[in-house]
Design goal:
Layout (H helix, E strand, L loop, with lengths): L1 E2 L9 E3 L14 E5 L2 E6 L2 E6 L2 E3 L5 H16 L4 E2 L10 H6 L15 H18 L6 E9 L2 E4 L13 E6 L5 E4 L4 E3 L2 H12 L4 E2 L7 E2 L2 E8 L1
Parallel strand pairs: 2-6
Antiparallel strand pairs: 1-7, 3-4, 4-5, 8-9, 8-12, 8-15, 9-10, 10-11, 13-14
Helix pairs in contact: 1-3
Length: 227
């Protein structure tokens, strides 16, 4: 998680995925989370790494979001914030971010990932602001980076397929980076936002792998703009 708060610009949170049946990719003797430290023992050698927070395989989506909430609050205060999920194929990145929004996935609060929880936090803030006479406008954009090509996931396709025109990365006169022609859709409530993201996720490039039957083959970038 990253914000423009100079006191704490970057925080690194690790969640260890529970072991998967039939897989032993790391060939480890033990893997444990102790406080904010992850300890791995492999071939009688011990490796330890300390993070801003560490969660074990029993940690649920709600517990994880408690560490991300400050970034969302910063965004609602007008400070740019970014949440980046990083990990190997099958480590749970898509579930962490888009859990509860994925195609053919059962809905449930316990499955809801960072995107869904951030949405509800944003619209709760908007509803609270409205009681004080302040109007909060929310919009979203979503793209994927696939084979080094940028594609707009919110752009309706002409032929009903997954193909979208390639977009270009540009730099403005003020040296800000932006994606030229990227669709930005106004969001009026959380339900409309969820429906939009679900539709976009169906457009992502996926492929079965040894680690995941529906592995994402692209990097997805979802942006919420709050004004």
């Amino acid at each position: 998680a990253r914000t423009q708060n100079p006191e704490e610009p970057i925080r690194v949170i690790v969640r260890v995925r529970p072991p998967q049946s039939g897989r032993d990719d790391l060939d480890v003797d033990s893997l444990a989370v102790r406080g904010d430290t992850v300890q791995l023992i492999r071939k009688q050698r011990t490796f330890s790494a300390q993070f801003d927070a560490a969660l074990d395989g029993e940690a649920d989506q709600r517990s994880l979001f408690s560490h991300i909430r400050p970034a969302c609050e910063a965004a609602l205060d007008g400070i740019n914030a970014t949440v980046l999920a990083y990990g190997q194929t099958g480590s749970g990145k898509t579930h962490t971010i888009f859990g509860g929004l994925l195609p053919d996935e059962q809905e449930g609060e316990e499955r809801t990932g960072i995107a869904g929880r951030a949405l509800h936090q944003i619209f709760e803030h908007a509803a609270c602001a409205a009681t004080c006479g302040t109007r909060v406008m929310v919009s979203a954009s979503m793209l994927e980076v696939y084979n080094e090509t940028l594609r707009d996931l919110l752009l309706p396709s002409v032929d009903g397929g997954h193909e979208r025109p390639a977009l270009a990365l540009r730099e403005s006169e003020s040296r800000e980076t932006y994606v030229q022609g990227l669709t930005e859709v106004p969001l009026h409530d959380a339900a409309a936002a969820v429906a939009l993201i679900r539709r976009a996720l169906r457009m992502r490039a996926i492929r079965a792998t040894d680690a995941n039957a529906r592995s994402s083959r692209s990097h997805a970038v979802l942006q919420f703009i709050v004004e």
